[in-house]
Amino acid sequence: MTPPQPNPVLLRLALLAPGIALCIAVTLVSLGLQHLEEGGFEHPYVEALVIAILLGMALRTLWEPSPRWRPGIAFSAKQLLEVAVMLLGASISFAAILASGPVLLAAIVATVVVTIAASFTISRVLGLSVRMSILIACGNAICGNSAIAAVAPVIGAGSDDVASSISFTAILGVLMVLGLPLLIPLLGLGAGQYGILAGLTVYAVPQVLAATVPAGLAATQIGTLVKLVRVLMLGPVVVGLSLLAPRLGGPQGDPAEPRRFDPFKLVPWFILGFLALAACRSLGLVPDLAVGPITRAAGLLTVVSMAALGLGVDVRVIGRVGGRVTAAVTLSLVLLLLISLGLIHLLRLG
Predict the structure, then answer these.
(1) Closest CA to 139 of 245, 248, 241, 253
(2) What's the domain range around 225?
């Protein structure tokens, strides 16, 4: 009698379980530290996403995971991140874009497009790889860490590139929150103007709230609106990059191998899922009560994925590119500030 064959699904789960459990443990610690920040400062200046990748990198420095842990870590870094990107589509409503007004909408789109192009050029001039340059450009132009995490699986970025770009972007994001209010008296900005400036330049939504609270409720409201519309640009950018991804070639910049055209493989599955959920949200098929839980689930999966990325990072690689990455992110951020201020005064926004 032939012995029963083991269930392949159970075998797969058993293979992935240790690494996934480790990533979840790092995530729980990161969320706990963010909760302590919120209790002490009311806003998380360093989000759990950043804490997770830093903790993962610290753990990886002290201990190299054995083959027992690696499959689950790799699964968390790639597949779970792709699911998180797909779920973000449920929070996108095309009506929110139209509600911001044509002039302000045009200014936001122009800022994102010009900043991506300029940041990419700066990064390439400084000798960074194409993928690293794309990560820095998208993170700087759209929404910092979240944009980097969403773009990374689309362009096939490695763990070292993702960790480097997120780490330095996170540092400057905190400095922006602390330093941006100083521009109010220096430049004589009104509440509306400052709110638009914060929405166009600060990376994360919680950081926009922290940066605009000193300027009053009006600045907070308009800053949040501008930031949310700016975040919506992530969808078109990710879709566009998914179409360009085959031209990026291999990790060393080698040309991609020729392949037959397949419309079902042109765009990754999670991007199709992202667009489908966004369409459902816009048509009212995703109820308002479901948006919050779906968005929180996407955020939680992203933190787990960042913990996995940190666990796969060789800190020595980051050290070799640290100076160039810091210069690229800093110059890109200064450029973003100048572009935003120019549009505010040119179009008389706020």
Answers:
(1) 241
(2) 16-248+265-346
